[in-house]
Target: C-type cytochrome, methanol metabolism-related
Amino acid sequence: MPVRMKQFCVAIVVSVLAGTVNVHADDKATAAAVSNEDGKYFDKDGTPTFNIKEDGTVDWYTYSGYRRFNSECNVCHGADGAGSSFAPALANSLKTMSYADFLSTVAEGRKNLSAGKESVMPAFGDNKNVYCYLDDIYVYLRARAVGDLPRGRPAKKDDKPAAAKEQETSCMGG
Model:
């Protein structure tokens, strides 16, 4: 089993064992990158995060997340995670959603019934175009949530790291 899939499974198990949505608050200070492994950034808790240079250049994973979000998620969640009449603004949701809850929700889906209104988030755990890039999508939305990334396609990006190429080949089965 690829390392990425093991991390994904562990995060889901942690979320399920917790039983409820974790109380979580994200902001620029919490999301700050403190480590880097082959072009992938992490915050002080080891959660994937973004890195945006002063000139606006985004790390590869944030850029990839933008691309993946806009190919798979924006139909319901709106351009740049701004929300729509179909689904909430993920650029807001990630301010209070933990990484484990994000992974669990995307993989397993969610059904909410409130005030006579039904909303359904389908499960994407079987969609390689989503789960192979969950961290990418997460860091992109996290950058949007804390206000470090404006709407639209990032103008500049870092080159794709070798580790990203290897993970993609391993996950996609190519």
Remarks:
- The radius of gyration is 15 Å.
- Residues 3-172 form one domain.
- The first helix runs from residue 3 to 18.
